[in-house]
Queue: 3 jobs
Job 1
Amino acid sequence: MERTTALSGDPHIGIFCRVLGEIAIVSPEVPDEFCEALRKALDVDLVRTTIQGSSIVGSLVAGNSRAVIVSGLATPDEVRALEDYREVYRLEGAMNAAGNVILANDRFAAVHPEMEPDVLEEVKSHLSVEVTRLTLGGVKTVGMAGCATNRGILVHARATPKEIGRLESVTDLPIGTGSVNMGSGLIGTALLVNSRGFIAGAETSGFELGRIADVFGFVEGI
């Protein structure tokens, strides 16, 4: 099975797609060949919608099996498209690129260190998880500096022991450091993963793929 792909030549596939368990959210204009690669690698149902009229769905959506958090600028039609699958919470205010500022699974959420307390409480309530403010490798946009499933967490290669310790305080899942696309620590920009499989940006090396497989428990499938 192919473990890497690109979207119209762009290896930053995590910017254009958000995988939440058994669903993958992509814009309607995403090519069929990319959607088929997602289905084969992750065994997902596709939800086709833009967010605030944009195709950069991965940057604007976060969530887990309980809820989807979207940009507060998402339209009513976009919200309705997601409500068939999850409860939807619209992230209002200046820090509304949910996929950039939230890293989540069914056990925890890590958020941008400057997220307002009332917004953090809303995230906690809707996702029904513990929430911690965090950076990863010094990067505040934690949703793009890591990926998390209910099997493991892969974070920026330069994440510090203190940052990893903060994650360990809210989850007992395996946590590993790594990279994508030949050395980028912005894991979320180029990795789509769930409990069934994964697919990474086209420039991701064999070594990087092995690290991804190890952290998320897919070694036998590589």
Job 2
Amino acid sequence: MSEFVICINNSSNRASLIVGKVYRRLPDPEAETHGMIRVVDEDRSERDGYLYPASMFVPVELPEEAKQALMVLEEGAP
């Protein structure tokens, strides 16, 4: 799966996820075997991210400039 994903469904987590927003996916092979992925969500209080059903996201390939911009935004967040 891609390093970045787009949220396509936030029905059970409206406060933590925004539909249409790109999120960074963190590697978690064990979670993936259970149909889950780990992402850094809107809360951002947990640098290790949170687990969500993979069906809530679709993978996306971004240009290098976009990846760098998203990483800078994430690092600058409280």
Job 3
Amino acid sequence: MDNLIYLVKSEDKFMAAYNLHINGAIKEVDVAPDTPLLWVLRDHLKLVGTKYGCGIAQCGACTVHIDGDAMRSCVYPVSKIGDSKITTIEGLSKNMDHPLQKAWIEHDVPQCGYCQAGQIMTAAALLQENKNASEEDIALAMSGNLCRCSAYLKIKEAILSVSKA
């Protein structure tokens, strides 16, 4: 835990200061070691693009990248991060010009939009690893991301358009 700065007891709970590498910058947070990364992002750093969905890593709304891998931040304790680099939807691109973000707009994917950050982050991790992902690869990678609006076909089309680019 090289990013741990100090550990103190506050109101019968241990608090710790962590230096986190988030979206290309180092941010210091003072939280309990078991605090899920999701709440560190949303409540302490005001990075609210990452959404709370289920709280048990089943829906994918809270997906972020940790060292390039798609991870569910709602169950990932801040104390496990160490020196890993975290990327949220806010850090995926500076001007919403990531190919997937463009494809989402081109294919008119968002409906309510609640799951979209997690969907895009999962797809981005897939395409980082497999630039020519097939429909089967996409179906497998995206199977854990739920969409209340059932935009699955448009999501697949958007990912395929970037995969085949």
